[in-house]
Design brief:
By secondary structure, this protein is mainly α. The chain has helices at residues 4-35, 46-63, 72-95, 123-137, 142-174, and strands spanning 39-41, 103-105. The model has no long low-confidence stretch (mean pLDDT 94).
Length: 189
């Protein structure tokens, strides 16, 4: 019989594989944006963001060695983690080839206001925030959830400031009435 920890490590491996797919998609889309005259912003924080997300999965794996599957709360965390993937790919598909992990802005492109962007400024970042809680909590890794959620909050503060400044006045006007993270005006304007 396969242990619950082995299943959790397989789950983490699948999340890691999904991240590698995103890296490839991001590189392709970044090259396309740069070919259209795009300009990259925030290069200094990007390696730190990559390190944070890589260490996050490693921390989940390490902490799970002294945890056990928490039952009902673990199942709830799995549902939330899978839901975040749905939100993430709704955002990614709405942006199309404009999505990438870097902040690259092509001058003159109108803001994308469809999909989850009808409701939020940063639906993909909401997915990341929820993941940082849900993925470790699948196996009761509460230390990882707390530490990496705090580190991610600091990273997102920098990232969102860079991104919103880079997107400029047209984006600011289009999204003036939308919350960053939660529909209905909650989560910071």
């Amino acid at each position: 019989m396969v242990s619950s920890r082995a299943l959790y490590l397989c789950f983490l491996a699948l999340v890691g594989a999904e991240r590698l797919f995103e890296v490839a998609l991001s590189r392709r889309n970044a090259a396309r944006a740069l070919a259209r005259g795009g300009r990259e912003y925030g290069q200094a924080h990007f390696p730190w963001m990559v390190a944070l997300h890589t260490a996050f999965l490693g921390s989940c794996a390490i902490e799970s060695a002294w945890r056990r599957f928490p039952g009902t709360s673990g199942w709830i965390a799995i549902v939330v983690a899978l839901g975040t993937q749905g939100l993430r790919y709704w955002a990614v598909s709405s942006l199309g080839d404009r999505w990438n992990a870097r902040v690259i802005v092509v001058p003159g492109e109108a803001p994308v206001e469809g999909g989850p962007y009808r409701f939020l400024r940063h639906p993909n970042y909401l997915a990341v925030v929820l993941e940082m809680i849900a993925i470790p909590m699948v196996y009761g890794c509460w230390v990882t959830a707390i530490v990496f959620s705090a580190a991610n909050a600091a990273m997102l503060r920098v990232r969102i400031q860079v991104e919103e400044a880079a997107l400029g006045a047209p984006w600011q006007r289009a999204f003036a009435g939308r919350s960053r993270f939660l529909p209905g005006g909650f989560g910071g304007a």
